[in-house]
Design brief:
Elements: E1 3-7, H1 10-21, E2 28-31, E3 35-37, E4 42-44, H2 47-55, E5 59-61, H3 68-75, E6 81-85, H4 93-98, E7 100-105, H5 117-123, E8 128-135, E9 145-152, H6 159-183, H7 214-223, E10 230-234, E11 237-247, E12 269-271, E13 276-279, E14 284-292, E15 298-299, H8 300-307
Parallel strand pairs: 1-2, 1-6, 2-5, 6-7
Antiparallel strand pairs: 3-4, 7-8, 8-9, 10-11, 11-14, 12-13, 13-14, 14-15
């Protein structure tokens, strides 16, 4: 089966790399234009572009994939199928009608249709995530699926680890579907059940404004790690949270002695030489890896040695 690969971020790049490892190399890679990234906001190529070039596959970057010129460019490679993995644009009817369009979607559809299924599943505390191979239709992630593969997710997992795991599962599932299509053995299943949506995680959401429970705070942190990070501040010392651990709610371990005094006291800080805890409405969260503004990621102990004296008694909730 000759196919073009369409994707943009790390998930798409990892699916592309895993497909190549399985012996499935696309005839063309299609991605979005370079965008500003990092602290300096310098233009950088999307991860899928970098991976396509590493593999030696012809690569094009387009503002709008639905332009007739893009369709003609894909056709010129002999591709009859489009494989889409986290591209970030809606494919319209003309393009969907010109090719067999398969989507590698990182959720157990119809749960978490949309742009950020992995982050939203972790934020929601889902204990099971997965990947679906779907036939694309005009509605957002509404098409029938051929394969859905589930994976358990634990409290140690974050968006980075689950992105890598689900990309591999997605490539394996897609390889299975492509083989089945060639043999005529694939059956398509309509999505059943209530649909939920996964809008892109915004920077404004990645700020500690309330601490209702230790588990919800921990889920927020791991949902946006290692991408955006959760912003926090105390006595005007600003930092990001990258790794935490929750205590003191049903099903979790008891709060360690070093953090017991702040358990249930939302925003209150407790610190020792090596440990830093923040109280929540229920339980407390231990901060394990933080990053001071303008600095590098570091352990809580390193952070406390450099910044501990600058911290107040509580977090400044609701920073901008």
């Amino acid at each position: 089966m000759k196919f073009a690969f369409v994707g943009t971020p790390a998930f798409g790049a990892q699916v592309l790399a895993d497909l190549a490892d399985l012996g499935r190399l696309p005839s063309l890679v299609v991605s979005q234009p370079d965008r500003p990234q990092g602290r300096g906001r310098h233009p950088a190529a999307p991860p899928v572009v970098a991976e396509g070039k590493r593999l030696g596959v012809p690569t094009v970057q387009v503002e709008t994939i639905n332009e007739p010129s893009v369709r003609d460019r894909i056709r010129s490679t002999g591709a009859t199928t489009l494989v889409v993995a986290a591209f970030g644009q809606i494919l319209k009817a003309d393009l969907l009608g010109a090719f067999d369009c398969l989507n590698v979607h990182a959720s157990l559809l119809p749960r978490f249709r949309g742009a950020a299924p992995i982050a939203r599943a972790i934020e929601a505390g889902d204990k099971e995530v997965g990947v679906s191979i779907m036939k694309m239709v005009e509605g957002l992630d509404e098409g029938p699926w051929a394969v859905r593969t589930a994976l358990s997710v634990g409290l140690h997992d974050d968006a980075g680890s689950m992105t890598r795991a689900l990309a591999l599962l997605g490539a394996l599932a897609l390889d299975q579907v492509m083989t089945g299509l060639a043999e005529g053995t694939v059956s398509w299943n309509d999505q059943r059940g209530e649909a939920t949506y996964a809008p892109k995680m915004t920077a404004d959401e990645c700020v500690l404004r309330a601490l209702p429970g230790a588990l919800s705070v921990h889920n927020k942190v791991r949902a946006v790690s290692p991408g955006l990070g959760v912003r926090a501040a105390s006595a005007d010392t600003q930092f990001k949270l990258w790794r935490t651990w929750p205590y003191g709610e049903p099903g979790l371990e008891d709060v360690p002695p070093a953090g017991a005094a702040v358990s249930g006291v939302s925003g209150k800080l407790a610190k020792t030489r090596e440990q830093l805890f923040v109280g929540c409405g229920e339980g407390a969260v231990q901060l394990l890896v933080v990053q001071p503004a303008g600095g590098a990621k570091m352990s809580a102990g390193e952070f406390l040695r450099g910044y501990g004296s600058r911290l107040g008694e509580s977090l400044d909730l609701g920073i901008s």
